[in-house]
Specification:
The chain is mostly beta strands. It has one domain (about 45-445, about 510-520): Methylamine Dehydrogenase, Chain H (7 Propeller), CATH 2.130.10. About 10% of the residues lie in helices and about 45% in strands. Strand 15 (about 225-235) and strand 16 form a beta hairpin. The longest helix is centred in the C-terminal third of the chain and has 23 residues, at about 465-485. It is globular, with a radius of gyration of 25 Å.
């Protein structure tokens, strides 16, 4: 059943009219014929959905953000970036969580010039991390780090070009399983002074298993172009190639969605453009039932609606659109952005979108006390950024919806399917430093176990009088430190404010905590049209 924040009254009216229209038709037609186009309004969550577990990982005023995650049987390994001070250089951070969301181990690596982690993949017993890197007075380059099972850096490769800045956007295992395929944006500048402009061109690199560049191909379309996502695709007759998704920009500045089908040697099979609204881009794809391909991206409509999610089913032989679905916020308070998609074995489609607030977006690590926070506005969660998941049938009908948020808002970078069917997501949450300190003296069970899943709620353990006295002393000490910090806030030096120091805690100081969660698995589904 749909949650009440996913559907509007007008949609109910349309639903009843549709039922009345299709009554004379056969039962098979009602269930098995996909509508060519459907538009769905989405609403803010109230409240959010249960998780199997979630973990906001952060310390003091450190800034942490997870980017990618892999399954380790029941456990999860997340990789991201950590900054110990405002404006400081990021380091690469691994955190291993067990099946209950508890940290098992943590490892940090200083990577000179680290500009942004792209993705992590399994590599034998170890891991491959793809990132972008820019050293002083040098162009941006591609960086591949190979880590063993103990998270030690074993080897690394750098791919660079003297004429372009190279920025990786995605990496997958090659079609033959013996290497890697990387989508890359090559950036260059043209002109001088006020006429200086940035140009982007789409490339795909084929690497061997050790990260050595074998060859690359460029795909030039329009004024600017980018390939944002790659997947392995099956051809009729047993062949294997790739689907590349992205966008190009025409001469008047409009972004047009772009899909390419490539042979295993990266040569072009076909390419098609898909224009919709004022701007559109396809960010990811997934093979679907042999010859078909699902693609998922963003579109800015020509009317007053904000950015929305856009899903299409394409014929893999020629790129023809079989059906399409469009999702946008019903209140206009949020922009929806495609962020994750996968297809389960039974044919269910899971979509993950970020809903980013247009009212009060927290877009920086630290905020001044005068800035407004979502929780100060008393219209929660209308002012928050949150993750919005939809579960669809094989014909694109929405079966259920889930929403996830934490602290003052979240941002999710990746979603994968867990080993038992749960939805594993990684990103970060905006959390007040003050709230982190309060958690020391008051632990809240955010996600109580579900009895229907066989878990038993254990009774609370009574604390000894000595323990209670110690907690009270700690709480009083923290209150004194906070008051002292507020009274002397004008005397702190800038450099000291950048350091992680408990005595400088303010009411509205917000930092990013790495956030990993496992959402509940979808209900069992049997496709009535699958024989």
């Amino acid at each position: 059943m749909l949650n009440n924040f996913f559907i509007s009254n007008s949609f109910y009216a349309l639903l009843f009219v549709s039922i009345a229209i299709v009554i004379p038709q056969t039962s098979k037609a009602q269930q098995c014929e996909a509508h060519y186009e459907m538009v769905t309004k989405l609403y803010h969550p109230d409240p959010g959905s249960y998780t199997v577990w979630d973990s906001a990982y952060g310390k003091d005023q450190r800034d942490e953000a997870f980017v990618s995650v892999v399954n380790l049987e029941k456990d999860v390994l997340a990789v991201g970036e950590m900054r110990s001070a405002v404006g400081g250089a990021p380091s690469l951070m691994f955190v291993h969580f067990d099946h209950r969301g508890r940290k098992i181990r943590e490892k940090h690596h200083k990577i000179s010039g680290l500009r942004g982690i792209v993705k992590m993949l399994r590599h034998g017993d170890g891991y491959l991390v793809m990132a972008n890197r820019r050293k002083s007075q040098a162009r941006t380059s591609l960086w591949l780090g190979f880590f063993d099972k103990n998270l030690a850096l074993v080897s690394q490769k750098t791919i660079e070009d003297k004429s372009f800045d190279l920025l990786a956007t995605d990496i997958i295992v090659s079609a033959n399983g013996q290497g890697w395929v990387v989508s890359v944006t090559a950036e260059s500048t043209m002109g001088e002074g006020k006429n200086k402009t940035l140009r982007k061109k789409a490339f795909v690199y084929l690497l061997d298993k050790n990260g050595n560049d074998q060859f690359s191909r460029g795909y030039i379309m329009g004024k600017d172009s980018e390939i944002l996502g790659l997947t392995v695709s099956k051809f009729d007759g047993g062949g294997i190639g790739y689907i590349a998704t992205g966008y190009f920009e025409n001469n008047i500045g409009k972004q047009i969605a772009w899909v390419l089908r490539l042979h295993a040697d990266l040569s072009l099979v076909w390419q098609r453009e898909y224009g919709r609204g004022l701007s559109a881009k396809i960010k990811m794809s997934a093979g679907y039932r042999d010859r078909y391909v699902l693609v998922f991206g963003d579109v800015l409509p020509a009317d007053s609606n904000p950015w929305g999610g856009w899903l299409m089913l394409l014929d893999g032989d020629n790129g023809q659109t079989m059906w399409q679905r469009y999702y946008h916020g019903g209140t206009g308070h949020h922009d929806y952005s495609a962020q994750g998609m996968y297809v389960s074995k039974g044919g269910l489609i899971t979509l993950m979108m970020m809903a980013r607030s247009k009212v009060s977006v927290i877009d920086m690590v630290y905020m001044d006390d005068k800035e407004s926070l979502p929780f100060d506005d008393k219209i929660i969660p209308e002012n928050m950024d949150y993750a919005h998941l939809l579960t669809l049938s094989p014909r694109g009908v929405t079966l259920s919806g889930d929403s996830y948020y934490y602290g003052r808002g979240v941002s999710i970078s990746q979603m994968i399917e867990g080993h038992n069917g749960g939805r594993v997501m990684a990103g970060y949450a905006h959390v007040r430093v003050k709230d982190k300190v309060e958690e020391i003296v008051k632990v809240v069970d955010v996600n109580p176990p579900l009895k229907e899943k066989g878990y038993i709620n254990l009774p609370d353990v009574d604390l000894s009088e000595k323990t209670k006295e110690g907690l009270a002393m700690l709480k009083n000490k923290l209150n004194e430190q906070e008051a002292h910090s507020a009274d002397n806030s004008g005397h702190h030096e800038v450099e000291k404010q950048k350091e992680s120091a408990m005595h400088e805690i303010g009411h509205n100081v917000v930092t990013r905590d790495g956030w990993v969660l496992i959402g509940d698995m979808p209900d069992t589904y049997t496709d009535p049209c699958r024989r």
